[in-house]
Amino acid sequence: xxxxxxxxNVGVLxxxxxxxxxxxxxxxxxxxxxxxxxxxxxxxxxxxxxxxxSCFSVPLPARLRSALPAPRLAPDAxxxxxxxxxxxxxxxxxxxxxxxxxxxxxxxxxxxxMLVIDVTKGMQTQSAECLVIGQIACQKLVVVLNKIDLLxxxxxxxxxxxxxxxxxxxxxxxxxxxxxxxxxxxxxxGPEAPETEAPQGISELIELLTFQISIPTRxxxxxxxxxxxxxxxxxxxxxVMTGTILSGSISLGDSVEIPALKVVKKVKSMQMxxxxxxxxxxxxxxxxxxxxxxxxxxxxGLVCAPxxxxxxxxxxxxxxxxxxxxxxxxxxxxxxxxxxxxxVMGRLMFFSPAPDSFDHEPVLNAFDFSREYLxxxxxxxxxxxxxxxxxxxxxxxxxxxxxxxxxxxxxxxVEFEKxxxxxQLCLVIGSRLDADIHANMCRLAFHGVLLxxxxxxxxxESLLPRLRVYKLKTKHGLVERVIDDYNVIGRSxxxxxxxxxxxxxxxxxxxxxxxGVIDSAFGQSGKxxxxxxxxxQNQLKxxxxxxxxxxxxxxxxxxxxPESKKMLTPTLKxxxxxxxxxxxxxxxxxxxxxxxxxxxxxxxxxxxxxTHKRMVQSP
Length: 619
Fold this sequence. Notes:
The protein contains eleven helices and 31 strands. The chain is α+β, with helices and mostly antiparallel strands and about 625 residues long. The longest helix is centred in the N-terminal third of the chain and has 16 residues, at about 155-170.
């Protein structure tokens, strides 16, 4: 807001050739240097290639005046001195699929979204993508059914009513359910029609926008941050950077930093749609003039208060899958990641709360390094079945939610292919922009918030060990034979080349109910010795049974039970015939199998970023 003007930013989004630029032109009274496809490339190709900005104003409605602080109503230069104005800044976004990065950038600076639909075609692929972006980045929507002049006059109203019902059904399962839908003809007769053809429905649309808008919450405190979308030079003046202020405020003479270039410049002059101003704040559309700066160095990016932004190499983000994206979100997969207003390639690792914390309240503005997190092979959601192994068991590495129960919040570590400069808590959107643009599919995969940026280039060594993400590992084996009441030999739990010494001291459960401790390796073939503590050794301490074995009694007293020894009796009887114990086994003479197999189960945590690769069990 500057002087008597209250500024709101309205996005104009939709599929290519739906008439967005024509609508912006029909609404606007003032154009910026980049409005209405002024770029030579846009004129040559006949499509919008970049964000365009223009505006129009109406008297500030009485219902909104009471929300303004008194000093803001002071008269300033304007059409009617003393009469506060509501200024609509239109952000005309391109509709071509290949320009989705630009569309995402434009959507982040708007207060209300106009979704423009060609009434003769209805929802199209990019219309749907724009609707998804709107759900992520915007709170209010107006649907504009454009090109009604192309409908046969006798059937026009029926066709409009039919399309209105279709759009109402489309919006039913979105946050914009019940959003207003209005028909217009922004450019009757098409692009080549004479300018004498008056647009249809524009005054009704302005009235609807005025009714729908509310004064956005603007905050002039905090560090200055502006999203720059155009940069150009003016002979004799300097270089102008135009954009939208995302946070804070700025005044003439302030210093600003272009963080991507590590350059600091002083503000020489400022304008809002050709009107000189001395101050501007969050939400305002602004042009900043600086000197001795080459505009070719900054096509698009951020400008901020000096030293207020950091450049990061990786980030911890909250993640929410976009339901229209087909297929799973896999750990180690690469996505185009839009962080704030920059898009780079990034590789993701997904993780969730520990299973007993799945229902905890989400925390959306911070990341807690003191908590433990469960590694996931993919983002958990109910529409994906757990991965299965050849044996039909759920894959231990997938870390899937059981019984379709999914956590209320999930996270990801994103490692960028090149550093990015962005504010904390900025919007993150992941996309598959390399997908076929002609396919009828949503390329937007997930969205979230950047909770913690990793600034150190060597973050893998300096910072990631603080991240307590673990994998739950479960191994299964068999008891081969008994040595005595307190010691057995196990097999099939480890491979021949496994260093069993790393597992010494870990607890294993026997299917008969006893709990033992891995004591040592036994031979060279992957076998091992298990000690089952006796009552005198654990001072009659009872071991709790693992989950699912409550029917076997609540306590295990130590040592092999008489029933377990009976099951393994064949091994005990024939042990002396097999040779000289361990020495015979090492020569390849194995003992006979017991009459009943006794299974072994070993479960432990391994922390993904633990440099020592330790295995941990709950006490």
